[in-house]
From TrEMBL:
The lineage of its organism: Eukaryota, Sar, Alveolata, Dinophyceae, Suessiales. The keyword S-adenosyl-L-methionine applies. Coiled coil: none annotated. Keywords: Methyltransferase, S-adenosyl-L-methionine, Transferase. This is Thiopurine S-methyltransferase. Pfam families: TPMT (PF05724). The keyword S-adenosyl-L-methionine applies.
């Protein structure tokens, strides 16, 4: 893959089902801004542990989005009077809003890769890939228009 031109803004790459791939820091090192999407928190935590020297200033924020956008993706709280059957993506507990089901997704992990005197952004969105919309990406990542120059998929959609 050729390096991007030295323009004002780096080309943006979306990496679906990124897991803990080593390709994301590499794409940053050759000049791309990278947004990964992963549904499993374990993969994100493993990535953070394995790349702690290459990826700087990592910040993980649960539900970093405006409430109006959260409602479009998944509600962060469902009030109930008692424990119901399993509710996918939610944990039954007592929290800020009382007893009910709470969701910790979507969440975003923000980091950057050192490129000498500058940095390339590397963000990982923890949510279901099928819930990802341009509005969600624009509100939670550096891709403020929710659009990407390319999608890098290394066997994610072909995995069994």
């Amino acid at each position: 893959m050729a390096s991007p031109d030295t323009a004002k803004t780096a080309p943006k790459v979306l990496v679906p089902l990124c897991g803990k791939t080593i390709d994301m820091p590499y794409l940053c090192e050759v000049g791309y801004g990278v947004v990964g999407v992963e549904g499993v928190q374990r993969g994100i935590l493993d990535f953070k542990a394995e790349h702690q020297i290459r990826v700087l200033n990592s910040v993980y924020a649960s539900n970093p989005l405006p409430c109006s956008l959260l409602q479009l993706v998944v509600p962060s709280f469902l009030q109930v009077k008692g424990l119901k059957s399993k509710t996918k993506g939610f944990v039954f507990k007592t929290g800020d809003q009382g007893l009910g089901y709470y969701s910790e997704t979507p969440a975003v992990w923000r980091g950057k890769v050192n490129l000498g005197k500058r940095h390339a952004p590397l963000h990982i969105l923890q949510c279901d890939m099928f819930d990802v919309t341009p509005d969600l990406l624009a509100a939670s990542t550096f891709a403020t228009d929710g659009r990407f120059d390319l999608i890098y998929d290394r066997d994610a959609l072909a995995a069994r």
